[in-house]
Design brief:
Pnp Oxidase, Chain A, UbiD C-terminal domain-like, 9-stranded antiparallel β-sheet, 5-stranded mixed β-sheet, 22 strands, globular
């Protein structure tokens, strides 16, 4: 389902809070949306931006992805892994809602872009799905935060040695770009995933759910036909100071000289809805972490039977994971730890549990740690490992890969042990209505 159909279904389920009072894009809207997490906030009255609505938090809860994909939550990781392994070329749409309105002239000041925090460098778009094309590998879809500089330009945070940066290095002159805002949840997931080089993330999105595309009007890139807003432009050789901006760990990222994007055309749906993603919020965390679960799942399944993976919000939805396995041998816990670190290179700490432990319940995982783990036997410590640049406690040297220590906790029942010693007792079910009340 597209973004609007999703919002309608979420509203029907009682997950949308509609706000008709005027709410300002400068600090106020971000504060209100943050206070409502994980509820979806829909702002209908934005002073200075007639005809626009703003939506925040549509990706802030796993339940929303389960609903949008019509897949049980427990099966999400399997569904994502299947789409990552078997992408499907999306069809060309006969009609493109994203091009219902073609703006006369480019004026980025006319978009309800938020100023989130007083520490921020300015007004930022954090929800933008950015599409480029590598001359050798083909289309690439990912995220770049965008700092509005003036009516026609953004400064974009483009991480070195990743897809967009690599495409820029292979291109003489400007690199065509399409910036999509207000896309479906499958497109958001696909943009967050890391398929092998040469695999089009849009094809991963279509494997998750039907995702027709349309060609841009000023370049030959293809975008989701039902996106709310598309900004067509070029990544230039000009550089501008970008940052600070709050990152996934809720700490402020540094200032850098970053590429400038010049926008040539703005198209959007009638009565457009602008998606505002809160930096460091639940939506940011979910979109960063959950799409890494299939890669961990795939690697762990190479060494044992993996039944589930959860990137945890307590680890900034990036640095911590719980892996659930059905042990096939005595060393499977340690093998799963090594495989998990391989499946997600930024992972810092991982807990491996048995299938009777709810990997989404921190209390259940801590119980497994308390009752099934012995540090001198089940702890895996790895020193000076490649880690995440988002971890403020790591070793960060400019131009070099960040380093960190990593820990793995094998919280599974020891192989060959009497399982009855490690199994919780179960009380029987009762009908409380027969005992309490009138």
């Amino acid at each position: 389902m597209d973004f609007r159909a999703f919002l309608e279904q979420a509203a029907h389920n009682g997950d949308v809070v509609t706000i008709n009072k005027p709410v300002d894009v400068t600090y106020e809207m971000a504060n209100v949306a943050h206070a409502l997490e994980p509820k979806i906030a829909l702002f209908n009255h934005i002073p200075g931006y007639p005809g626009w609505r703003v939506c925040a938090n549509p990706c802030a809860d796993r339940r929303y992805f389960s609903m949008a994909l019509d897949v049980p939550m427990a099966q999400l990781v399997h569904h994502l892994a299947q789409a990552n392994d078997h992408p499907q070329k999306p069809p060309l749409a006969a009609y493109a809602p994203c091009q219902e309105v073609v703006q006369e002239g480019v004026d980025l000041d006319s978009l309800p872009i938020l100023l989130h925090l007083s520490q921020d460098a300015g007004y930022y778009i954090a929800s933008a799905v950015v599409i480029t094309r590598d001359p050798e590998l083909g289309p690439n879809m990912c995220y770049h935060r965008l700092l509005r500089l003036d009516k026609t330009h953004f400064a974009a945070r483009i991480v070195e040695r990743r897809g967009t940066h690599t495409a820029m290095s292979k291109t003489s002159g400007d690199l065509p770009v399409a910036i999509c805002i207000g896309v479906s949840l499958p497109v958001h997931l696909a943009a967050s995933m890391s398929p092998p080089p040469g695999v089009d993330e849009m094809a991963v999105a279509h494997a998750l759910a039907p995702t027709p595309v349309v060609e841009c009007l000023t370049n030959d890139l293809y975008v989701p036909a039902d996106a709310e807003i598309v900004l067509e432009g070029r990544i230039t050789a000009v550089r501008h100071r970008e940052g600070p901006f709050m990152d996934l760990t809720e700490t402020m990222d540094i200032e850098r000289e970053q590429p400038v994007i010049e926008i040539d055309l703005v198209t959007h749906r009638r009565d457009p809805i602008f998606h505002a993603l809160l930096p460091g919020g639940l939506e940011h965390k979910t979109l960063m972490g959950m799409p890494k679960e299939p890669t961990i799942f795939a690697e762990v399944n190479k060494v044992t039977r993996c039944t589930g993976v959860a990137i945890t919000p307590g680890g900034a939805s990036w640095l911590h994971a719980v892996v659930q396995i059905e042990k096939q041998g005595p060393d499977d816990g340690r093998l799963a730890i090594a495989a998990a670190f391989k499946g997600h290179g930024s992972l810092k700490h991982v807990w491996v549990v048995d299938t009777d432990v709810d990997l989404y319940d921190p209390l259940a995982v801590e119980w497994a740690l308390a009752t099934r783990f012995q540090a001198d036997r089940d702890l895996v410590l790895l020193e000076k490992q490649p880690g995440s640049s988002l971890d403020p406690s790591g070793l960060h040297v400019p131009g070099q890969k960040s380093l960190t220590a990593k820990l793995g906790f094998d919280c599974t029942i020891p192989w060959g042990a009497d399982r009855s010693k490690f199994t919780k007792g179960q009380y029987g079910q009762v009908n409380l209505a027969a005992y309490v009340g009138e």
